[in-house]
Amino acid sequence: MDERRKDVRDKVLFGGVAAGDARPPKDCVVRDISEHGARIEFKSGARLPKDQISLAIARKGKSFLAKTIWWRDNIVGVAFTDPADQTLPESDLEERLRKSEKKKRLLQRKINDLLGQ
Hints:
The chain is of the alpha+beta class. The chain is built from one helix and seven strands; from the N terminus they run βββββββα. It has a six-stranded antiparallel β-barrel with strand order 1-2-3-6-5-4.
């Protein structure tokens, strides 16, 4: 099979959110990425517009405008259309993680109390 990409894609495992048109945003996993595109995977078949989508990758702190190039079941290949990446607004992920860790510690204490430890 001939390689048609401009760049070699780096294998990654980033969480992302894809959105387009008036459709609600959908969580996805970015499996590989390059300067010009990415391969993203959804839990189930995704219905994305062909013309333009927004792909936000929190771990990179960036959002990309992209167009759908190909799709197969729940895997989609996209090409970035706007090389000037825009920074994402601040995420509440750190705060949610802290709350989750605190809740985990409290639950662990309750379990230990019930077990008599």
